[in-house]
Each structure stands twice: as C-alpha cells, then as structure tokens.
Amino acid sequence: MVNIPPSRFGAIGRRRADSVPLPVPDFLRIDARSCYCLYRPDVRRSSIESWVATGNTTCPVTRVQLTDFTLIPNHTLRRLIQDWCVANRSFGVERIPTPKQPADPGMVRTLLAQASSGSGSYSLRVAALRRLRGLARDSDKNRSVIAANNAREVLLSIAFADVGLESSELNHEALAVLSMFALSESECLFVASESDRVGYLVKLLFHSSVDVRVNSAAVIETVVAGIRSSELRAQISNADGVFEGIVGIFNYPLVYPRALKIGIKALFALCLVKQHRQKAVAAGAVEALIDRLPEFEKCDSERALATVELLCRIPSGCAAFESHALTVPLLVKIILKISGRATEYAAGALLSLCSASERAQADAVAAGVLTQLLLLVQSDCTERAKRKAQMLLKLLRDSWPRDSIARSDDFAGSDVVPF
Q1: Least C-beta-crowded within 10 Å: which of 172, 286, 297, 396?
Q2: Can you give the C-alpha Rg of the chain in angstroms?
Q3: What DSSP element (H or E) covers 43?
Q4: How far apart are CA 175 and CA 366, in angstroms?
Q5: For the chain, counts of helices (H) and of strands (E)
Q6: By the 8 A CB rule, do 320 and 279 touch?
Q7: Helical (H) or strand (E) element with 122
Q8: Under DSSP, is residue 114 helix (H, G, I), strand (E, B) or coil?
Q9: For residues 319, 325, 326 and 331, what is the CA-based torsion angle, rounded to 10 degrees?
Q10: d(CA 212, CA 265)
Q11: Which helix (H) or strand (E) holds 41?
C-alpha cells in the first residue's frame, strides 16, 4: 500500500483515498522523480542536484570520478508511474507531469546573442526573449543557467534602451524576463541612479497590459530592496505616481494571483521608509489592503499585515484604518489563524489603533479580542506577539464589559488553528 500525496487528489479523490486502500506494484515504489546520474538511478533528482552543487565529483558508491553532470530522467520508470496514475484516476489520482528538459547553456547563449543583436531582425529578437522567458519560468535550474551567462546585463540594456521614447514589445519582453531574477547592488544602482529609468518603470505601471504593469512593479521592488542608499530609495519613492501605480495593481481580479503577490511585495518595500508611508496612504493603500487581505496566500498575508502595521505607525495611516469598518474585526479574526508572524503583525496593528482611538478599542472588544488575546499569551507564538498582546490587554482593561469575563461561552466558540 502507499499513501498518495494530497496534492495528487481532487476534493472527491481525497475523500475516497482516505477510505480505500490503494495497492501499488513494487516496481513503482521508487520515487517518481528518480533519475540517472551516471551510476545512481535510484536517487531523487533534487538530492543529486544539491549533492553536485556542494562540489562533489566522486560517486559515493562506486568511487568513480564523475565528469558529466547532466541529469537524465528515468523515463521508463516515469512512464510506468504515469500509466498507473491513469489506471487509478477513478480514485482521484492525478497523472504526474512529464518533467521538461533543463535549459542547455549553449542554447541560452545563442538566445541571448540573438536578443542583443542590433543587426538582427526585430521579430527574431522578440522571439528569442520569449523563448528565454519560457525557460526561466520553467524551473530554478533554468534561471541559474540563464543568469550564469551574463543575462541580467543583457536584459537591462534591452529593457532600458531608448527610455525617452515609447516603450516597445522588445522592452516589455526583456523586462518580463528580468523580473524573474534577483539583481546585484550594482545592477540595482544602474536602474535607480538615473531618473529617466525610474520614470520609465513608473510609466509602465499604468500600461494597458496587466503583465507589463506587474513586471514593472516586480523590478521596482527588486531595485528598492537591493540598494543601500537612502537617497536613491527616496528618488524612487518620490517619483510621481509610483504609489498610485503599485496600489492600482491590487484592483485586478483574482485571476491574476501574481499581481497580488508582486503588488504587496513592492508596497511593503516602499513603506519600509517612514517618510514615504504618507504617500501610500494618500494613494489608497489602506482601502486596497483591507479589501484584499482575506484573499492573500499565507506568505503574502504576512507581508500585507506587516505593511498594515507600518502604516498604523503614522497618524494619517492610523486614522484611515480606523475609518474603515472592516479593519478591526478583520485584524481580530486573523489572530492565531494564519501564522505566528501574521498574529504578531495583527496584534501590533491593533495595539497602534487602540492606542490612538477609543472607538477602535470598543470595536475590538465587540469583535471578541479578549478571547483571542488570552489564547495568544498562552500559545507558542513569538515573544513579540505575546508582549503586544499583554500591552493590548492592559490597554483594553477599562473598555471591557464587567460581566464578560464570567461568560465562558466566549471561549467555547473560539477557533484556534495550529500553525
């Protein structure tokens, strides 16, 4: 018998798998991601890659010196597993995908040469960038191969060529590939040190294509996070329309999950400097954050709540959050529901709001904050979260109804989700 990972089942398949033992042939018990690496056909690909990355060059079993580190998947085993998945799809088993061949360094160099060739045809250059974009999207390994061939420098030169003119499809494709890579500090300085380049990125935040807007926001976030100079950070944050463009990304429907992910990363990076937070509030960041907060994934929820706490530390942000009817109930509900960090940020935001407003205190009490805080101080959450909870309990001591502590029903209805 075998326990199939939950990701391989649909909603119905999961229920059936819980109650129906699924026999698996012995020859399928080897992991689906096994691959040949010269003399080791029974090792996971990820294990081989990490082993090679640490500088090992000798097979630990045969002691043979390895010269070719090209990983060849065990196609026969994969096909057997796929056939078995298809035969058992009535149990909700999903067919495992066929892995794609890693990018060839020679092909990557050719594509980069085609993309950067000033004498090449325009359509050929665009096609080369699209091919690079597809490779970079496929896997981390491909992105490593592309980055190792001086790709970022090539992409920067293409993306920011003729920034004073109307942007072209070639610029957009180069920016799309560039948005998938981390930039070095010197590369971030290349972008941030020229106001024309910063203005060009901000202009793209209002492009008609959502992909162009999101890619521009991704590069802005990378640049802001990658430079140490406060003056250059201020130059980006002071660019006309940058906060409005970033906040506007939140307005896209959920069919664009990447827009939410990139949007909150960029907004958080810009709000790390206190002097810039007022602009975020003026651009409508408060309404966008509260309206979208229930829709973020876990790591994005943590970043969104951290941004909420940062904005609550300035008077205008605190007032804007207080005026939104859903702010306090939503923050109370989040405590102990997502993660330790999310709880810490939610408690910190509530502490700032309740310290500034008696109305927020009353709203928090009405939303059941006492139960949440008492559970929080007894949980295994972070010490910072517990300190904030204790401070909030002291602050709300006079706001809590006298008879409420005697009502045990408040505690019975609490839903604590472990994380």
Answers
A1: 297
A2: 26
A3: strand 40-44
A4: 48
A5: 24, 3
A6: no
A7: helix 122-138
A8: helix
A9: 50
A10: 16
A11: strand 40-44
Inter-CA distances, 380 with 28, 42, 177, Å: 41, 40, 42
One DSSP character per residue, 263-326 reads HHHHHHHHHTSGGGHHHHHHTTHHHHHHHHGGGS-HHHHHHHHHHHHHHTTSHHHHHHHHHSTT
Sequential DSSP letters for 238-249: TSTTHHHHHHHH
Q: Which amino acid is at 92?
A: G
What letter represents residue 228's amino acid?
R
d(CA 127, CA 123): 6
pTM metric for this prediction: 0.75
Question: pLDDT tens digit string along 335-374?
Answer: 888 888 999 999 999 999 999 888 999 889 888 888 888 8
Segment 198-203 shows an average pLDDT of 93
Question: What's at 123, amino acid-wise?
Answer: S
Cα(194)–Cα(234) distance, rounded to whole angstroms? 13
Q: Provide the edge-to-edge strand list for the sheet that holds 72-73.
A: 40-44, 34-37, 72-73
Could you tell me what percent of the chain has a pLDDT over 90? 42
Please report, as a single letter, which amino acid is at residue 163.
V
Q: Which amino acid is at 256?
A: Y
Structure tokens at 101: 């061949």
Query: What single-letter amino acid sits at 379?
Result: S
* Residue tagged 């992105």 (tokens): 143
Q: Using CB atoms within 10 Å of the CB of residue 210, give its burial: 0 to 12 exposed, 13 to 18 middle, 19+ buried.
A: middle
C-alpha–C-alpha distance, residues 150 and 32, integer Å? 34
**What domains, with CATH codes, occur in the chain?**
6-91 (3.30.40.10), 102-174 (no CATH), 182-283 (no CATH), 300-419 (1.25.10.10)
Q: What is the DSSP letter of 99?
A: P
| Alpha-carbon separation of residue 102 from 69, 71, 136, 140 (angstroms) | 12, 9, 10, 10
Q: Which residues pair with 267 in a beta bridge?
A: none
CB atoms within 10 A of CB 382: 15
CA pair distance 1, 20, nearest whole angstrom? 10
Look at residue 9 and tell me whether its pLDDT is greater than 70.
Answer: no
Residue type, 144: S
- Which three-class secondary structure state does DSSP give residue 64? coil
SS3 content of the chain, % helix, strand, coil (to 5): 65, 5, 35
What the block records as the tokens of 295 is 């829709």
Secondary structure element (H or E) that encloses residue 391, with its range: helix 383-395
